[in-house]
Amino acid sequence: MTEAAEINGREEVEDDEQDQKQKKSDVKRHDDGAADLERVTDYAEEKEISADNISSAVEQFGNQRNKENELRVAKEKELQKVQVKKEDIELIMNELLVSKAHAEKVLREQSGDVVAALEAIISN
């Protein structure tokens, strides 16, 4: 054998050995990942969720939503009591190019104060 063929042969053997080591490393990583996944799924299976807990949580969400709705309705009723001028609503609509509903809502929230309503819309 020539010296070049001998070197190429050694390089091929070394490459094959490196490929085998890489494959073993990949298999080991895969096995470790599978083991981790198995531990996680085992834990999830051990932890049981009862129907009572779920219904209790749903009931709490429903109660919270009802309270928020009641507060929103009460706030809207309070805002409806505030007197606003049609001219003020139109001024806000024309100057800031907002809808009538938005202009009226902000004006009511600011107790009919046009300047405060303009500042509130601009700051948001």
From TrEMBL:
Q: Which CDD domains match?
A: UBA_HYPK
Look up and give the organism this protein is from: Drosophila mauritiana
Extract the InterPro entries matched here.
Huntingtin-int_K, HYPK_UBA, NAC-like_UBA
Source organism phylogeny: Eukaryota, Metazoa, Ecdysozoa, Arthropoda, Hexapoda
Q: What is one process in the GO biological process aspect for this record?
A: negative regulation of apoptotic process
Return the annotated region ranges for Disordered.
Answer: 1-39
The name this protein goes by in its record:
Huntingtin-interacting protein K
- Start and end of every Nascent polypeptide-associated complex subunit alpha-like UBA domain? 82-122
Q: Give the Basic and acidic residues compositional bias ranges.
A: 19-39
